[in-house]
Specification:
elongated
Length: 228
């Protein structure tokens, strides 16, 4: 992170930021907002190549970039963010997007610390937006609440265990520990017959039909372990 050598009063230097967006109105608006909030805007870019050049020349503390940028208007911002992270890993990166794009967001957040993904609509809440930038500069990862909701919903939709009941999950978890039906019955204070019914229900709900060359109980345990 850069430090202003001219700061002689001991106060922390303003965070240095490069703003990138092909929409001139939004780009200038963001720059003005940041400057009025105490940031030092050291560059404004309208394309991916411009952003990369400004970042290399100025070594800012933060980069704020639209996910879609010229010349491709697809994932140019994300692509440049990836290059910046590889070349200058100490720079905080906030990617802005008009819509929730889960796949792109997850790819970005896999980059680790000092990174964020927010919808452009969040910029209207100035306090929250500025706070997010400060947190990213300190190394935090900031994720838009809408994205979290999408990820939770996707997990629920794709959860292979979503079809079984809480009690059946308990039975399956004990199966994964290698316990027999009798052992599961003792652990859960159930009759062995009740456990057998639960096991049959689990196998049916997980769509594990009987097969000559496959053990359904083992396959159920594998499904459980894969879903954790």
């Amino acid at each position: 992170m850069g430090v202003d050598p001219s700061a002689t009063d001991g106060a922390a230097a303003a965070l240095r930021v490069v703003v990138a967006d092909d929409d001139a109105l939004l780009r200038e608006g963001l720059a003005s907002l940041l400057e009025n909030s105490g940031f030092d805007v050291v560059g404004k870019a309208r394309s991916g190549p411009d952003l990369l050049s400004l970042t290399r020349d100025n070594n800012p503390d933060l980069v704020v970039v639209d996910i879609r940028m010229p010349p491709t208007n697809t994932t140019e911002g994300l692509d440049v963010a990836r290059i910046i992270r590889e070349e200058q890993p100490d720079i905080g990166i906030l990617v802005l997007s008009a819509h929730v794009e889960v796949e792109y967001a997850m790819e970005l957040l896999a980059g680790g610390r000092a990174i964020g993904y927010l919808l452009k609509s969040r910029v209207t809440d100035v306090t929250e937006f500025i706070d997010s930038l400060h947190r990213i500069a300190k190394g935090a990862s900031v994720v838009d609440a809408t994205l979290i909701q999408e990820l939770v919903s996707a997990r629920r939709r794709n959860d292979p265990l979503g079809v079984i009941s809480p009690r059946e999950r308990e039975v399956l978890a004990l199966m994964a520990e290698g316990r027999s039906n009798a052992g599961i019955a003792r652990r859960l204070w159930l009759t062995e017959g009740t456990v057998e019914k639960h096991v049959r229900s689990i196998l049916t709900k997980l769509k594990l039909p009987e097969a000559a060359d496959d053990h359904r109980r083992v396959r159920a345990v594998i499904t459980y372990l894969d879903a954790r």
